[in-house]
Amino acid sequence: MMLKDQVAVITGGARGIGKEIALRFAGEGARVVLYDLNPAQLEPTVAELRALGSQAEGLPVNVTDPAQVDDAVQKTLDKCGHIDILINNAGITKDGLLLRMDVAAWDAVINVNLRGTFLCTKAVSRLMLKQKRGRIVNIASIIGLIGNAGQANYAASKAGIIGLTKSVARELASRAITCNAIAPGFIQTDMTAMLPDEVKQAMLKQIPLGEFGTPADVADAALFLVSAASRYITGQVLVVDGGMVM
Ligand code: NDP
Using 50, 70 and 90 to split pLDDT, how confident is the model at 215? Predict the structure, then answer.
């Protein structure tokens, strides 16, 4: 029970990597609060968490909207009394080659991935500063480190998250708040399921450990970064990619 009585907010927690992080944290005794777009998707995930004995909550939130984010953080505070952990995980892709990428696809990805991370971090860190403790983990991507043809918007948003992580780490360190990023490689979720088979096979050839990652691999890294075992680590990017980028 590494996270007993701790309150963890997880954005995009209704499915994929966010859901797996929620299950992992709940298993360690955390009270998890999921912020996600779609109430119909939140409900079964919250029910699954509660069935495991967790005091889980789900709030429909669009992380790009400052009013919705502030309102959700206030509701979380009213209900739970404190927020100890923030996982900025909500993210989308809208791929296309640069010359064909329209402004809407650029804005949508930057807004959810980068603006959303900024807004949630700003709202939650206000409480963490008062508490003089807290753990923030931002889900970036190896694409933010190495770039990718067809993902200029996504790569820029994830590189932006890495810069944001380091700045926030520096600003909040004096109050015992850490802020780190995880850069996953190819993880098997709905986001990657839609890729064509030949793309997946080409990716697999570039992974020294010889297999795709699972949401559980990312959840394990997230657990480390919010646990006491990482007390002295801040402003870092933990790459979880089977050795793809080294
Ligand atoms: P999924 O698409 O499976 O899940 C993303 C979740 O975020 C969904 O529940 C989605 O809701 C929610 N979401 C999307 N937009 C918003 C929003 N505006 N406000 C609140 N919630 C939102 O993605 P993954 O689990 O694969 O990815 C999770 C994170 O990990 C992302 O940041 C992604 O970039 C990152 N990542 C993933 C990798 C992978 O290989 N899968 C690799 C590297 C990084 P809805 O279902 O309603 O759309």
Answer: very high
Q: What whole-number distance in Å separates Cα of residue 17 and Cα of residue 240?
A: 12
Residue 174 CA to ligand 1 centre (angstroms)? 31
d(CA 149, CA 183): 18
| Distance from chain centroid for Cα 191 | 14
Give the mutation target among 17, 86, 240 for probing the ligand 1 site: most ligand atoms within 8 A of CB.
17
Q: How far is CA 170 from CA 87, 236, 245, in A?
A: 18, 11, 25
Predicted TM-score (pTM) of the model is 0.98
Whether the Cβ atoms of residue 40 and residue 67 lie closer than 8 Å to each other: no
Among all chains, which residue has been given the structure tokens 């986001």? 191
Whether pLDDT at 35 is above 90: yes
CA 43 remoteness from chain centre? 19
Quick one: which atom of ligand 1 is closest to the CA of 38? 47
pLDDT tier at 233, thresholds 50, 70, 90: very high
Neighbours of 156 (CB within 10 A): 18
Query: Quick one: pLDDT band at residue 191, thresholds 50, 70, 90?
Result: confident
Q: What spacing in Å lies between the alpha carbon of 91 and ligand 1's midpoint?
A: 4
Ligand 1: residues with CB < 6 A are: 11-12, 14-18, 35-38, 41, 61-64, 89-92, 112, 116, 139, 141, 184, 186-187, 189-192
Q: Is 232 one of the annotated active-site residues of the chain? A: no
Please state the atom number of ligand 1 nearest to the C-alpha of residue 20: 25
From the list 25, 106, 154, 186, the catalytic residue is 154
What per-residue confidence (pLDDT) applies to 107?
Answer: 98
